[in-house]
Amino acid sequence: EAVIELLEMPAAARGGTSPSAYAIVTRRDVVCAQADQLKAAGLTPDAIDLPELCMRNLAARLPQDSEGVAFLHFTDTAGLLTITRQGVLYLIRHIDIGQLQLDQSPTTELRAGLIPSICLELQRSLDYYEAHYDLPSINSLVLGPGTGSERLQAAIAEQLGLNVLNLDLNTMFELDEPLSEDVQKECLLAVGAALRPDSASGWE
After folding, report:
1. Cα angle at 62 between 56 and 63, to 5 degrees?
2. For the chain, which domains are there?
3. Rounded CA separation 120/111 (Å)
4. What is the Cα–Cα distance from 142 to 67, expressed in whole angstroms?
5. 20-33 residue pLDDT tens
């Protein structure tokens, strides 16, 4: 038994193009297991949100979002890219390279394969965003806390001409104590979920 969520995307700038949407499908027992874990911890979940929308919620609070911003976050096993502008999610891309692979690969492999692959995926995504929606070029890319690498940041800045920034939750919120980079990385999507608008999509 599956749970299905349809995420509609903005219409293309040119007429005659069919509306587009992302279909997100997962097993119901997986969703229920997540909800049960939260309840066991004494929490009452209102919804289980999508990682892409959690990232959108965070990106919408960035000053760069007014003109459009790319947001790239790596989990241990994969990368997730979103492009937003004025709080609207325009594009989602999954990258089959994770933080563990970036951390554990020798320098030669990073230079020859991994980093060029990531830069190529970023360039394709930015080109699609500009052409499909006829919007101004994206100038800034934000990396999630504790993700990527200095070499990756330098390559993105050099090859794509982007202003590459590191997200720091300490500068976004008033906190009693500063959060370490590791804690920020682990709780990033949870923070994004907490910023979920009441009208947002998600599994209720």
Report:
1. 140
2. 51-194 (3.30.420.40)
3. 13
4. 13
5. 888 888 899 988 89
